[in-house]
Amino acid sequence: MSNLPSIFVGIASYRDTETQWTLADLFRKATHPDRIVAGICWQFIPGEDDDCFKVETRPDRQRVVKFHASESQGACWARHQVQKLWQGEDYILQIDSHMRFVDGWDEKCLAALADCPSDKALLSTYPPPYLPPDDCSDFLPVMFASEFNEAGILGLRSRAVQLAEAPPKPTPSAFVAGGFQFGPGAMWNDVPYDPYLYFQGEEITLAARLWTHGWDIFTPNRVLVYHDYTNRGRPRHWTDQKDWPKLNLRAAKRARHLLGMETVDDPDALIDIGKYGLGGARDLAAYEAFANIRFKERAIDGKSPAQVESELTPDRRKLRCQAVFGGIWRSNGWGASETRSGPGSSLAATKVLRERLPPLFDLLGVQSLCDAGCGDFNWLNGATGRLRHYFGFDVVEEAVAANRTKFGDRKNHFFNTLDITSEQLPEADMILCRDCLTHLPIAYVKQSLALFRRSGARYLLATLHRTGAENQDMRVGGWVPYDLTRAPFGLPEPRMTIGEAAEGGTKFMGLWLLSDLAQ
After folding, report:
1. Above 80 in pLDDT, residue 157?
2. Rounded to whole angstroms, how far apart are CA atoms 431 and 463?
3. CA-CA distances (angstroms) from residue 174 to 17, 285, 352?
4. N or C: which end of the chain has fewer CB within 10 A?
């Protein structure tokens, strides 16, 4: 057995009951389990997390470091602690704490690595999924650049290749997955894990660092491991720790600095940056060319973030809106104390509208209203009492659930989740869309207006800004004071307008007959 190459398996586990079963499967499925050493960083709360330790497998082949969960500083910090347990084993397998393995995974990993045409090769990709306990899916995920988020961090995703279409050998890749990396132990000597990153930025900075240190990344041409992507209700660091936004902000600054997106002078974001920086074997510009991305411009395949967003499929568009606006909702990102829908939805900001809308509904014979982007229904709830039916729609599931609870006694009020950019509203007398389109890219606004037109509603009452400025594009979650009558929207002049300010102001609610809107 001593002649066999040794493999160190690094696992960072945060209060995860699956880790014990991951370890059991790791040793059970290895062809030569005695050459395996598992290094685990346990982060847990004694007494509360005893169910994480019901089963122990091969303690003689484990090296362990334990921390109270309150001491943890995130995933990258924990992976850094795992690296300290490595004692020069020939190969390294880094995985997440909820994994399953193919039979003979150790031999198959070594064979796949040997098929890579590089002396400094590593295997990495997002593994295919399993559902606990052992329901595994077999296909080959291939990673690609998805989009830059609002913090400037490049997100990665994968597409599925069926096994029948598997290439004969592993294929070159520009990206690594935090949850599966297999390569020679020397890669940890060259590129130690950065403990000052949090979660976002882990994978793209590591990929750039490995590549500029001369390491070549390959996507496996066979299934080697599986990953549990379900939630299972397990605690996460960012749900337990109140200071996680500070750690995440520091990490985002660090990642942008490392990748040349900006020059950061915050000393907390630059601790030991030289130790965890780029290599000198190849430069960052060469990596960008290889990956077909430009960090400073936040471009993927030559396209800006706005262009990338505009080309998303309807399903991806909905997920994008849910992610952005859901994050704003959960963090109260608009910063208003009265309402999570932002200061523009306060009672003070909507005084004129709350006075004017009920008489307008009566005048137009509006008995059913679709509120497109209802938020927390803070300002409008006092103006809908005479309606026969009110339908409140929002893309944020938590907002909808909260409204159902808070206003559940109103038998003629209904709340549901809907993405106005990709899903059609039910037919109603009027669609009200206040302060919603102004947070969407131009392409998304156009798609929403087309869906409004097709809904069968008679009227549209929507936010209209009269600033005299041209309409500028933006990303989801930004803000632009759109004038819907100007290019590129080109709506006709509204039948009437309601100024939101008591006197003057440039913000109005415009009323259109939807039949007046061009098809």
Report:
1. yes
2. 12
3. 32, 13, 55
4. C
With beta carbons less than 8 A apart as the criterion, state whether 466 and 484 touch.
no
Amino acid letter, 305: P
Q: DSSP letter string over 287-333? A: HHHHHTEETTTTEETTB-HHHHHHT--HHHHHHHHHHHHHHHHHHTT
Distance CA 385, CA 102 (A): 61
Specify which residues 293 forms β-bridges with: 300
- pLDDT at residue 219 is higher than 70: yes
Summarize pLDDT for 70-97 with one digit per residue, the tens: 999 999 999 999 999 999 999 999 999 9
Q: CA-to-CA distance for 64 and 11, rounded, in angstroms?
A: 10
Q: How far apart are CA 28 and CA 22, in angstroms?
A: 10
Could you give the CA distance from residue 360 to residue 260 in angstroms, rounded to a whole number?
54
Query: What length does the chain have?
Result: 519
Q: Which two tokens stand for residue 11?
A: 């696992």
488 upstream amide cis, omega within 30 of 0: yes
Between CA 162 and CA 168 the distance in angstroms is: 13
